[in-house]
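Duplicate of #3305? Posting structure anyway:
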């Protein structure tokens, strides 16, 4: 058995012209005899059987990507997701039930060591060039991601320290082994393959050679053409291997997606109104309430959609740098929080469309501490905490101590947020705190935060499937540049809680620790939560159709054409297209339509929708 499997893998290596050292994969082992294979074909579908294939989606991007590589220098741009979304992994997550569902693997099993998962691949799975996806492609992923030639230190580190090996049993059976036992093991081990037959063995020319190459993938679309600085076109694959799979059927319906570079948001809006773009995001209140009062919408040619989701919310707010002398005192941090009139900003600037974010980990289900409430604007409480810290109001109304005024710099990276911060500044002054606003280029602002050169950082972090604390609040990442602990939190009790959370293998214990950590973060007062937007809003031409429920619990973009978890649910209706064009030609008015769907609206929020 061992010799046969080694010969089998040698054959795979020979075909692809590669040499893969035995450090990253193992062959010749036998599957455990008591293995329990699992699958999931019973969760509800979320696509519509009425969906039709065809049409072209015209979408705008504000800059052309610096590379088509998804690893290495300049690869971490916003367009990267469009490429990666067309590259499937072993397994996926159902967007409503959050159960495991098949992607490239049809069956999976868990090892008793809590470090190993076993997978059986779908034998129909193919790369874009028609080459079968095999277990060797997953073994090759480790060699590829560990290679210094790809110039991707984070991936080198992750695929070395977190993934131990891939075990190849035969062409379509493999195991992925983590370096340590973990809960939620499937979130780590459901890795994606890398096309061994395409890349060969990476060398010093990798970065330059593949900067603009179109690499084979496993998803429904493939980039087909591009003009640098102008546009990128994706085309749907003919007879894609996943077309009839339960959770992919009736999805990814458009035949072509054209991304056009338009570098100004107002210009995108103008293009959209002329029909050169198919949809436009209306999340910003000014667009929903004011700019949408335009003929194409009022005449019914364009519809508005407001769809509520129930997913992890970005930790948006004010992050206080405790290495600044003024924020070393917890009383001062609490006073600062009570001087931030977030509700006033929501009312005055955001038209009551946004919601108050209560803490940094909202939307994580049982892992969220629902009892925490963000500190509200309260001048009396500001007075209490500042006096407790030994500060006194100066003649100009600003708090002072030992010749120092309570004047701090708030750094941010978006001009669109200036009106919000101006209101915060005005309200904070009433409480005796001066905010000095500093607007930088987004890249420069983030660099300043990572180098810990800020007083207060105004920003939001991206989300993850489970709360992540070590990067942001563990002392191992404090008082040093280029880490995400931008508050420089250095608290022994917090460290113990975070270490216990990371090391726990029991779900109930992890949930308990997660709730305690969030309470500790609130107690320390290092983060002032501001807003959350638990919905998406779009304007789209009326020939675009959706399922009865337009999205899923975790939909953050109803016009995501590719995403395997919740993308590709919409479709083009040719009859409505011609009907609309004819009405526009004759200047006939159609019924204006605004769709509001609250199916997945968070139970904790209430709102009057206008």
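Output from current build:
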């Amino acid at each position: 058995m061992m010799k046969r499997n080694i010969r089998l893998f040698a054959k795979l290596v020979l075909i692809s012209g590669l040499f893969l050292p035995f450090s990253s994969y193992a062959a010749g082992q036998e599957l455990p005899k008591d293995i329990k294979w699992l699958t999931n074909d019973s969760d509800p579908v979320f696509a519509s059987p009425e969906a039709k294939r065809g049409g072209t989606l015209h979408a705008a991007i504000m800059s052309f990507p610096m590379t088509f590589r998804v690893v290495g220098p300049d690869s971490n741009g916003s367009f990267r997701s469009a490429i990666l979304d067309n590259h499937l992994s072993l397994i996926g997550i159902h967007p409503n039930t959050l159960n495991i569902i098949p992607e490239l693997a049809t069956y999976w099993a868990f090892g008793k060591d809590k470090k190993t998962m076993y997978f059986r691949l779908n034998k129909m799975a193919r790369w874009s060039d028609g080459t079968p996806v095999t277990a060797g492609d997953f073994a090759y992923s480790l060699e590829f991601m560990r290679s210094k030639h790809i110039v991707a230190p984070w991936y080198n580190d992750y695929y070395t320290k977190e993934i131990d090996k891939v075990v190849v049993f035969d062409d379509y059976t493999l195991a992925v082994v983590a370096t340590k036992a973990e809960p939620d093991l499937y979130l780590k081990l459901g890795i994606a393959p890398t096309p061994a037959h395409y890349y060969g063995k990476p060398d010093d020319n990798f970065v330059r050679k593949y900067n603009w190459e179109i690499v084979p993938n496993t998803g429904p679309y493939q980039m087909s053409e591009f003009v640098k600085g102008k546009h990128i076109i994706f085309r749907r694959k003919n007879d894609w291997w996943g077309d009839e799979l339960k959770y992919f059927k009736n999805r990814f319906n458009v035949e072509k997606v054209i991304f056009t570079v338009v570098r100004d948001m107002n210009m995108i809006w103008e293009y959209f109104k002329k029909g050169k773009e198919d949809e436009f995001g209306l999340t910003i209140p000014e667009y929903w309430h004011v700019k949408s009062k335009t003929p194409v919408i009022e005449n019914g040619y364009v519809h508005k959609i407001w769809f509520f989701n129930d997913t992890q919310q970005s930790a948006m707010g004010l992050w206080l740098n405790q290495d600044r002398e003024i924020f070393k005192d917890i009383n001062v941090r609490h006073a600062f929080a009570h001087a931030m009139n977030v509700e006033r900003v929501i009312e005055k600037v955001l038209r009551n469309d946004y919601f108050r974010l209560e803490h940094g980990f909202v939307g994580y289900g049982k892992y969220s501490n629902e009892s925490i409430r963000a500190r509200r604007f309260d001048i009396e409480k500001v007075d209490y905490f500042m006096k407790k810290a030994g500060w006194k109001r100066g003649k100009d109304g600003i708090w002072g101590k030992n010749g120092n005024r309570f004047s701090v710099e708030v750094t941010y990276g978006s001009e669109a947020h200036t009106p919000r911060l101006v209101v915060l500044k005005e309200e904070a002054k009433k409480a005796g705190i001066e905010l000095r606003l500093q607007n930088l280029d987004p890249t420069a602002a983030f660099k300043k935060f990572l180098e810990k050169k800020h007083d207060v950082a105004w920003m939001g972090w991206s989300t993850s499937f489970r709360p992540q604390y070590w990067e942001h609040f563990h002392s191992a990442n404090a008082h040093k540049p280029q880490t995400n602990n931008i508050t420089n939190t250095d608290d022994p009790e917090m460290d113990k809680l975070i270490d216990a959370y990371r090391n726990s293998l029991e779900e109930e214990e992890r949930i308990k620790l997660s709730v305690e950590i969030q309470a500790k973060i609130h107690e320390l007062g290092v983060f002032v939560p501001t807003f959350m937007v638990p919905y998406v809003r779009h304007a789209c031409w009326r020939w675009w159709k959706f399922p009865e429920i337009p999205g899923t619990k975790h939909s953050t973009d109803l016009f995501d054409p590719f995403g395997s978890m919740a993308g590709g649910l919409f479709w083009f209706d040719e009859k409505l297209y011609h009907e609309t064009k004819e009405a526009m030609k004759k200047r006939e008015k159609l019924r204006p339509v605004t769709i509001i769907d609250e199916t997945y609206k968070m139970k904790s929020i209430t709102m009057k929708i206008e």
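Confirmed duplicate; merging threads. The radius of gyration is 26 Å. The first strand starts at residue 25 and ends at 27.
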